[in-house]
């Protein structure tokens, strides 16, 4: 029965596509001696039988099965292409080794896997420009890649796209101690930047659990949020400028270091969060705040979600300018961390609680800030908002608290199959979805809720021993419909990638998406940059 339904739906989808594109034909033209690709294609030729269509059905376990067809307008690699890239980059930067390709073709959660035959490692913006100029002339599709820590399939190929990894572009260009402005290349690992700035007496406004692997170019391209957004805001506010290479090889130098610049359109924002679909970010200038001497962390327990909400409101009022993080996790998340990760201990061992809150404050006056936090905690406990809690006494204890919160994704991976959803919702509604999903799934799976309560970002995770279509059918599209109904976003900070490209309409209007597609067409007419991602596949074809 299930097989029949899937086949029927597939045929229905094909019929709809064929009705729209029956007369389209593959077309290649040569302009000035160079091959130019058209996005139209002939589905009659490429989809002669249902069996052939099934062969190109892209299956990913974090989202419903998606029919993705390789755009036949894209060329395939040949020996001349390899020779060109070796002449440009040198043999060591042109990777065809199968073991290394296996790694870069697969996302870190092992859910998405491409079949690229080529990894390029440029060392400069000019090399990136020449790579894209050549690929655009040949209609070779490209996937920009950094640390490959994404969760939605945005940083790995879908088919045989050329992987352009900027990890070799990892230089810090300049740092101004007066203004706190850092200029660096896109391949700099976030943790290395954090260490560099720490030695200078500054901090990165961005902090992520994946900081040991993720790169600043990827952070900017996905508009990564992280643990301290409640204090320092998003990268749209902290990135002062960037350099990006367009699909045709043109370099946009927007690497400004000014806090104020109202000269025309602020184009850098198009590249912050566009996931490499409009251009490859090669350099970034970012405003970094000074490192403050007083950092305090409290790990607290609450009886119910209502208390968590009230505690957040009180923290904003009473801690104000020193509040730098407000994270939450439920008892299911805590259980997973304690059972799956070695060396992690419960800071509140007397009993398990329904909810846990991690609060971080940063300021310049240790005694004043600590007294302020202790007074807040005391009043919150007297008011019944906190059922238990502990204040870190040293850096080791503080690190152990953060290890619990940052360790949830790792614990989920070790527990088995996991379906991950990164959602923005009104704070008062966030946990309602978790409760609804537990009722909906029953004993089929474990539903885990945690995230950045301070900025309304829920990480909804469904954990099971193995991936199961029955579970997925209960999750999707229900999660997206629920989020849309409550005027939330289906992607708070992870991006859309391949997983959610076709789901964008749950969060954006048709007119908005069409405008995005027009911008994509303007900046990347041949559609070679990160194809099949971000925008609906019907608009990418």
From TrEMBL:
PROSITE patterns assigned: FAD_PCMH (PS51387)
Source organism, top-level taxon: Eukaryota
Keyword Cytoplasm belongs to the record: no
Record-annotated FAD-binding PCMH-type domain positions: 112-291
Keywords: FAD, Flavoprotein, Oxidoreductase
The keyword Oxidoreductase is annotated on this UniProt entry: yes
Listed transmembrane segments: none
GO cellular component term of the entry, any: mitochondrion
UniProt EC number: 1.1.99.39
Reaction(s) this enzyme catalyzes, per UniProt: (R)-2-hydroxyglutarate + A = 2-oxoglutarate + AH2
Annotated signal sequence range: none
GO MF annotation, one: (R)-2-hydroxyglutarate dehydrogenase activity
Cofactor(s) needed for function: FAD
Top class in the EC scheme: oxidoreductase
PANTHER family, A to Z: D-2-HYDROXYGLUTARATE DEHYDROGENASE, MITOCHONDRIAL
Protein family membership: Belongs to the FAD-binding oxidoreductase/transferase type 4 family.
Protein name: D-2-hydroxyglutarate dehydrogenase
Lineage, top ranks: Eukaryota, Viridiplantae, Streptophyta, Embryophyta, Tracheophyta
């Amino acid at each position: 029965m299930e097989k029949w339904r899937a086949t029927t739906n597939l045929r229905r989808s094909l019929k709809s596509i064929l009705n729209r594109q029956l007369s389209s034909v593959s077309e290649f033209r040569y302009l000035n001696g160079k091959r130019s690709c058209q996005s139209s294609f002939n589905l009659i030729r490429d989809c002669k039988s249902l069996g052939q269509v099934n062969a190109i059905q892209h299956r990913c376990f974090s989202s419903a099965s998606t029919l993705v067809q390789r755009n036949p307008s894209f060329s395939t690699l040949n020996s001349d292409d390899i020779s060109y890239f070796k002449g440009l980059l040198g043999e060591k930067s042109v990777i065809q080794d199968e073991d290394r390709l296996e790694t870069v073709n697969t996302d870190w959660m092992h859910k998405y896997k491409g079949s690229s035959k080529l990894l390029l490692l440029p060392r400069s913006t000019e090399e990136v420009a020449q790579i894209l100029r050549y690929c655009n002339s040949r209609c070779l599709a490209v996937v920009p890649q950094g640390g490959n820590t994404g969760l939605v399939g945005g940083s790995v190929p879908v088919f045989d796209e050329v992987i352009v990894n900027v990890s070799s572009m990892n230089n810090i260009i300049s740092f101004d101690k007066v203004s706190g402005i850092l200029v660096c290349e896109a391949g700099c690992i976030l943790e290395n930047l954090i260490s560099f700035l720490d030695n200078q007496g500054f901090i990165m406004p961005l902090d992520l659990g994946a900081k040991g692997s993720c790169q600043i170019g990827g952070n900017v391209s996905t508009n990564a949020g992280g643990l301290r957004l409640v204090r320092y805001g998003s990268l749209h506010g902290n990135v002062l400028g960037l350099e990006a290479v367009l699909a045709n090889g043109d370099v946009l130098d927007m690497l400004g270091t000014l806090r104020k610049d109202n000269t025309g359109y602020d184009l850098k924002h198009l590249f912050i969060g566009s996931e490499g679909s409009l251009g490859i970010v090669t350099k970034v200038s970012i405003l970094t705040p000074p490192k403050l001497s007083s950092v305090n962390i409290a790990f607290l327990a609450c009886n119910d979600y209502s208390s968590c909400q009230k505690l957040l409101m009180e923290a904003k009022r009473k801690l104000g300018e020193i509040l730098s993080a407000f994270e939450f996790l439920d008892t299911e998340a805590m259980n997973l961390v304690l059972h799956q990760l070695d060396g992690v201990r419960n800071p509140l061992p007397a009993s398990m609680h329904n909810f846990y809150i991690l609060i971080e404050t940063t300021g310049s006056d240790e005694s004043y800030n600590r007294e302020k936090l202790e007074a807040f905690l005391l009043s919150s406990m007297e008011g019944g908002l906190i059922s238990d809690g502990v204040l870190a006494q040293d850096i080791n204890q503080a690190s152990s608290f953060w290890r619990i919160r940052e360790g949830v994704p790792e614990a989920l991976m070790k527990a088995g199959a996991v379906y991950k959803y990164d959602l923005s919702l009104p704070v008062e509604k966030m946990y309602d979805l978790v409760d609804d999903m537990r009722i909906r799934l029953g004993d089929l799976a474990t539903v885990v809720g945690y995230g950045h309560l301070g900025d309304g970002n829920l990480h909804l995770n469904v954990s099971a021993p193995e991936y199961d279509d029955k579970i997925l059918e209960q999750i999707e599209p229900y999660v997206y419909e629920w989020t849309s109904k409550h005027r939330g976003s289906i992607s708070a900070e992870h991006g859309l990638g391949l997983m959610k490209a076709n789901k964008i309409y749950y969060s954006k209007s048709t007119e908005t998406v069409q405008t995005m597609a027009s911008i994509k067409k303007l900046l990347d007419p041949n559609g070679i940059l990160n194809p099949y991602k971000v925008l609906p596949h019907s608009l990418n074809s």
